[in-house]
# Entry
Amino acid sequence: MNKLTTLLTLSFLLVLTACQPKQETENAAEPPTKEWSIALHGGAGYVSPDMPEDRKQAYMESLEEALAIGSEILANGGSALDAIEKTVNYMEDNELYNAGKGAVFTSEGRNELDAAIMDGSTLNAGAITGVTTVKNPITLARRVMTDSKHVFFSADGAETFADETDVERVDPEYFYTERRYQSLQRAKAEEQESNLIETNEEKEWKYGTVGAVAKDVNGNLAAATSTGGMTNKKYGRVGDVPIIGSGTYANNLVAVSATGWGEKIMLNVSAHTLAAHMEFQEATLQQSMDYLVDEVLEPGDAGFIAVDKYGNFSMKTNTGSMFRAATDSEGNKEIGIW
Ligand code: GLY
# Structure
């Protein structure tokens, strides 16, 4: 190569470089990314602000403990899937919440549990509905995702699948709690007398669910939701929770978990609507959350938690209250009920 050719080649390369969009400019448009973040809910509804102080204390302490479980896993480099599963396990074992041990009763006096989990990095998911002997339904849902060729098992089929795993089983009596049983009796009485007004406590149980969403240090997102459904639900009713895209959805842009009136959440394919709004409108997490809660759903329908790929979290309800908590690697933290 002679001198002239070398000079021409260098000039050409300089012009080419100058015409390239600047990397720093592109990055400057991206919001800063938190290493990890997690949000959880323990149900949306109409909890009275006059709730007894000791009860309020019990909820606040359990939200704090659930958050600590998930955030410790994430802070130690654990996966979003592990963090949300363990967080939800804790809430399933706590009878304050309508999931696992604290599940509400069906109209037939049974406890039939639903759960779903989704891995945003693979778009794989697992769901179960109508199980009666699985102590931690979210763990079985994860096994459906990882150990089966299917996505969704129901009732007897889900129990048969559970037989093939090592998930912990319990006698259906394990799910009996006097508080939930009395709630069923009141719901049945109300059915007879249509002029009876539901108490706030009934509404809280009616809308209860637990869920968690997280982003881990590898940039992977995941969502999990678990519930006993609605008090006095009829004949194999399935709610939004195990329907992928309705109560539970994750890709690696956003992870969403819903709580509230399952029928309304389902009819609006709510969790996926939030994700699609973010993607196709190029909206922020908060803009898409506002769109879903304020414009798509009606007042009193539902609440949602979500984290996005930048580690932002958002928690919003259009009911009077939502048990919720969130934190991230930057030390931002929020715990609340109203
Ligand atoms: N959102 C819980 C249910 O309706 O089953």
Summary: Residues 13-27 have pLDDT under 50 and may be disordered.
